[in-house]
Specification:
The structure is a single chain. By secondary structure, this protein is an all-alpha fold. 73% of the residues lie in helices and 0% in strands. It contains 23 helices and no strands. α11 packs across α12 and α18 packs antiparallel against α19. The chain starts with a helix and ends with a helix.
Amino acid sequence: MLLLVALSAIIAPFIFLVIFRMPAIKGMFFSAIIIIILALFVWGMGGAIVTASVLQGIHKALTILLILFGAIVLLNTLRHTGAVDRINEGFRNISSDMRVQVIIVAFLFGALIEGAAGFGTPAAVTGPLMVALGFNPMAAAALALIADSSAVSFGAVGTPVQIGLSNIPGANLEFFNEIGVKITLIDLFGGTFIPLMLVIILTLFFSKKKSLSNVFELAPWALFIGIVYTGSALLFAVLFGQEFVAILASLTGLLVSTFTARKGFLMPKTVWKDALQDNFEIKSEKSEMSLVKAWSPYLIVVALLLITRIIDPIKEFTLTYVDLTWENILGFEGVTSGWEVLYSPGTVLVLAAVLAVIIQRKSFSNFAKASKESLQSIQTAGLALFSTLALVQVFTNSGMNANDLISMPQYIAEALAATFGSGWVFVAPFLGELGAFITGSDTVSTLTFSPIQYSVANQTGMNTQIILALLVIGGAAGNMICVHNVVAASTVVGLTGKEGDIIRKTLIPAIIYGLLAGLGGFIIMTIL
């Protein structure tokens, strides 16, 4: 009975969004109501802590809305200045094959943004870029989410590893770096196949003429790029530690993919464009804007994200000033929602939009017009996010109850551990997926479940570092299906209300990635 109550935080959204295909604004509202009622009358949470948790969720939703607004306003500003046309022209000069474009834009450029920012930012940036390239909006949203997976293990300069595993006994920099190496070893069996997975989803789900030949044509290059990314990630993890793995591996991948695509290495003879939006017209006239000037706002985004996270005095400044963090909400210790506004990727994206009109020598009215459009775009998403994050925080804080019960996440984890025992190596990534699906964060999922994973590994005699690495990778896979990321991705491509349809597209890749990670973990554990 209690296990079913705990799992309701997973079951209810799945039923409403995926099976009944409700828009998130309705489905997540009903889900949140169900969880709140169960938390009050079954789990024994008091009305005050539930209220504090709902307020915490609303506050966290505002932090995500700033990121959403920043991503949309930057893209809309660049549309008005003409920079998007020049960026798209540049992509087409590399390759006008949409299969190649999805790997370069969604997987590699998305991984660069993930390594610098995290917090679901990549899908909010790459989704609209793909729509501008002519991708069907549903394809753009789903593919952006699937692509933002492998890099998530090292997102925001190593945060999922450093913060997520900080509560493990003996955790220190050496330990984090060792886990980073284990993650990249295991990801040779999973992350390597993400580019091919993107091609399969694009050609079989979104093309007008569905044919496996469209997959086979590009499979060698897709696998080659996958190996370049995961292989270089392993090398960088060994040489430099886990903080810059996603950034360095994505830059390596971008250089290799651009060079090989231009040279025709492993490229098919035919150029595939069968997933273009109906009536989409590729502008034939050449843009007068230079490619560097067009890309400069995104380069500024990456640079500012890195500067604010690496250079300590600047990091301290952005974390200290304009701090809207809400601590100990309603007096409950630990019920806190952080919002360091200057440190937020959303603020960086908005600043880049302002700088874009200056660098590209355009009227400031372009930014003003883009801001108005962007505010209108995120209104519905805001309501959906409020319900989603309210559910998440009630679920997470459920350990504060009058019945002396452990929290719902811990209850699920312990029930699974008791059931699967020695087969835990195949279950570990899926616990991470469940955590990320609900909380929307690999870091929070890892922080929540790592003590249980560590305990299970010790009890069954498994390699603790491999089990913990699988948990982190599982959280990265869960990034494809977590509700608030899906809400964000649907919003930025203009598909608000289609969240359930998007999850139906991303669910199978998330499961496959978890299975591949489990297999990789089993093989590595056997060898070691």
